[in-house]
Amino acid sequence: MNTHTISMLVNNHPGVLQRVAGLFSRRGFNIESLSVGQSEEPGLSRMIIVTAGDDKTLEQITRQLNKLIDVIQIAVAVI
């Protein structure tokens, strides 16, 4: 099982973190680490999530995250 780092640019609105964490929870994916902070662009935040899983799991996660309206951009790295 690989560890993946998912970096997202999201709208800085109340409830965005809840929707992202809820997506992981509903799908049975575990968040090993989570960090959120202001991005270089006003009104946007950078969210970094570390999770473990195979490539199929990662594909499911990124596909579901892309469906969230407040997610602007996603980048994935394998650790």
UniProtKB/TrEMBL annotation:
- Domain (ACT): residue spans on this chain: 5-79
Keyword match Amino-acid biosynthesis? yes
Reaction equations catalysed: 2 pyruvate + H(+) = (2S)-2-acetolactate + CO2
Enzyme Commission numbers on file: 2.2.1.6
A molecular function annotated in GO for this UniProt entry is:
acetolactate synthase regulator activity
- Would you identify the family this protein belongs to, as annotated? Belongs to the acetolactate synthase small subunit family.
What is the recorded name of this protein? Acetolactate synthase small subunit
